[in-house]
Specification:
It contains twelve helices and 24 strands. The protein is α/β, with parallel strands linked by helices. It has two domains: 203 residues, Enolpyruvate transferase domain (UDP-n-acetylglucosamine1-carboxyvinyl-transferase, Chain); 197 residues, Enolpyruvate transferase domain (UDP-n-acetylglucosamine1-carboxyvinyl-transferase, Chain). The strands form six sheets. The protein has a four-stranded mixed sheet with strand order 22-23-1-24. Strands 2-15-17-16 form a four-stranded mixed sheet, with helices on one face. It has a four-stranded mixed sheet with strand order 4-5-3-14, covered by helices on one side. Strand 16 and strand 17 form a beta hairpin. Helix 3 runs parallel beside helix 5, helix 5 packs parallel to helix 6 and helix 7 runs parallel beside helix 11. The radius of gyration is 21 Å and the shape is globular. The chain starts with a strand and ends with a strand. The model has no long low-confidence stretch (mean pLDDT 96).
């Protein structure tokens, strides 16, 4: 499908969807808790539905309502419903669940779509090999058999935090204590803190012994809880940048005390001279003369695409560092933004780990491509509210934000969706 967006001013108030990161974590914790949990403020993106389906295969009973879940978790790991675990395009689902499903001691087959199985999983391969368990991967599936064991684990800190979170979900359930040692440089610590925060809600405790060492007490049990999922700062970022380049917006549904790493968008917007006013559970953002600045993606890699758009509409040259993990997402997001921003008159120079963005733009003469990547589609859509144009492959937003274009319309953006071809 393609989206046609006409230059139009946004106005009014937008409520941001619940955090996908926190919803994944809450669904997993509730499914591992023996008893009933109630999760509210749920948004059924494809990624979240994928995690729900996978936890059902582990044996959890999950009832879905309009925006909430009732989850009856498992009492042990003998209730496996299916050995084939389809993760679609969700890297969080795959990496969070590989250690958990190992505790079934069964042969488990993980599959996925598009680039998912091409994304690196070498850390788990090495862990499983070291404990004498089976781990085999190709471009179509991952096969495991053999349970994770308690002990000492050492992981590089500059790879995806999802591996550390996967271990954290699982190690407290083992009989003995464990430690995770993280080798510097340590990136995306904020995502580890989100995992620890959610586990604590379900009465499982993780301790930082120092800045690079996690202590995990063994023989713990998840306890059922009722949890409200907070608003998503990674989705907030699209509307925050929209307000900064287009017209003022009131953005609601957020927790100012959130630990989400993508909350850094607030500081970045202010560094670029956007006007940001914090209110109770909301933010009022309005445009100003934006000035380029430096950005570090170390703890907020998902912001990469929309920050390219912010830089494109800012005067001067923006330097983005610690960007290498953008190459390992649903698309190579660095190459994607180089390509699409070029169509909009913006030059991006890039190395493996850095981007230099020159703040210029014009109306695109060609349709933009979504690269089968939800964040590329949404970032481009924000730019086109000023420039006007088309985005092909706009259905990719269903991965994380199915109502994105409806929400744009609700605040005055002129959007029409058409079948391609």
């Amino acid at each position: 499908m393609k989206a046609i967006i006409r230059p139009s001013a946004c106005k009014g108030t937008i409520k941001i969807p619940p955090s996908k990161s926190m919803a994944h974590r809450a669904i997993i914790c509730a499914s591992l808790a023996d008893g009933k949990s109630h999760l509210s403020n749920i948004d059924y993106s494809i990624d979240i539905q994928t995690t729900i389906d996978c936890m059902r295969k582990l044996g959890a009973k999950i009832e879905c309502f309009k925006d909430s879940l009732i989850i009856e978790g498992i009492s042990d790991f003998t209730h496996l419903q299916d050995h084939h675990i389809e993760c679609n395009e969700s890297g969080s689902t795959l990496r969070f669940l590989i250690p958990i499903f190992s505790l079934t001691h069964e042969k488990i087959l993980f599959t996925g779509k598009n680039r998912l199985l091409k994304r690196p999983q070498k850390i788990y391969e090495e862990i499983f090999t070291d404990i004498g368990a089976h781990f085999d991967q190709n471009d179509e599936r991952i096969e495991i058999q053999g349970a994770l064991t308690s002990g000492e684990y050492t992981l590089q800190g500059n790879v995806s935090s999802q591996f550390i979170s996967g271990l954290l979900f699982t190690l407290p359930l083992l009989e003995k204590d464990s430690r995770i040692h993280i080798l510097p440089p340590f990136e995306s610590k904020s995502y580890i803190d989100l995992t620890i925060q959610m586990m604590k809600k379900f009465n499982v405790q993780i301790q930082w012994e120092d800045d690079l060492t996690l202590f995990i007490q063994g023989n713990q049990k998840y306890q059922p809880k009722d949890v409200i999922i907070e608003g998503d700062f990674s989705q907030f970022a699209f509307f925050g940048v929209l307000a900064a380049i287009n017209s003022e917006l009131e953005i609601t549904g957020m927790d100012p005390a959130s630990l989400q790493g993508d909350k850094q968008i607030l500081d970045i917007l202010q560094d670029f001279h956007a006007c940001v006013e914090e209110k109770e559970n909301s933010y009022h953002i309005k445009p100003s003369a934006l000035i380029a600045n430096d950005i570090d993606l170390k703890n907020c890699p998902d912001l990469g695409p929309i920050l390219c758009i912010l830089a494109m509409f800012s005067k001067g040259m923006t330097h983005i560092k610690n960007a290498s993990r953008l190459r390992l997402k649903e698309s190579d997001r660095i190459e994607a933004m180089i390509s699409e921003c070029a169509k909009m008159g913006c030059l991006i120079e890039a190395s493996e780990d850095e981007m230099i963005i020159h703040g210029t733009y014009h109306k695109p003469a060609l349709p933009l491509s979504g690269w089968k990547d939800h964040r590329i589609v949404m970032a481009c859509a924000v730019a086109l509210t000023i420039l006007g144009g088309e985005i092909e492959g706009c259905e990719a937003v269903s991965k994380s934000y199915p109502t994105f274009f409806e929400d744009l319309r609700s605040i005055g953006i002129e959007v029409s969706i058409h079948d391609e071809g």
